[in-house]
Amino acid sequence: MSFNLPPKKSSPLDDILPGIVTAIGIGVFFASPLGGIFFAITNSLFVLALLTPLVLVVGFQLWKTFNAVDATCPSCGSPVTALKNGEPTMCFGCGSVLRTNREGNGVELCNPEPSFEEEVPDFFGADTSEIFEDLFGGQRGVVAESVKTEKRQEERVKRVKRESTVIDIDVIQD
């Protein structure tokens, strides 16, 4: 069922009136105090979004200038960035552990150069306590070679005993 309504009288003003009313409404809104507050907050957020990355980049560059040193690795010559407070860092080129020197203008090795006479343990089966001692303030290589050799022999005996131990488990089903 449909209704027969009288035809709508159209005028040229009917087509442009919604646009005119919208423009006037927006103008009145921004002319009011509420529109001024909205405009101020929007502009503040826009400026904040533009300035925050700039301030962060400049701040980081200043921090890096005062707290880090760029140098080359003494072992492989790769570029390295180390903190000036002496905390150890690792060279991504060769894996050497480095720290800044006393003057704070270069880097030096934390660990001694490996010799080919010593046995170099693999990290999957070796005791890594020596590595952590070197990195975080342990003995720092002052231990005599005989003590190191004794410790390695004891570790080998313990590892052989551990690997040769057989654990027998009986499973009982209910």
What does this structure look like?
By secondary structure, the protein is mainly α. It has helices spanning 12-31, 33-67, 129-135, 145-164; strands spanning 68-72, 79-83, 89-90, 97-100, 107-109. The strands form 2 sheets. Strands 3-4-5 form a 3-stranded antiparallel beta sheet, with no helix packed on it. The protein has a two-stranded antiparallel ribbon with strand order 1-2. A hairpin with a 6-residue loop joins strand 1 (68-72) and strand 2. The model has no long low-confidence stretch (mean pLDDT 79).
Describe the secondary-structure layout.
Layout: H1 12-31, H2 33-67, E1 68-72, E2 79-83, E3 89-90, E4 97-100, E5 107-109, H3 129-135, H4 145-164
Antiparallel strand pairs: 1-2, 3-4, 4-5
Task: Tally the beta strands.
Answer: 5
How far is the N terminus from the C terminus?
77 Å
Query: Which class of secondary structure composition applies to the elements?
Result: mainly alpha
Radius of gyration: 37 Å
Q: Write the element-wise H/E pattern from the N-terminal end onward.
A: HHEEEEEHH
* Overall 3D shape: elongated
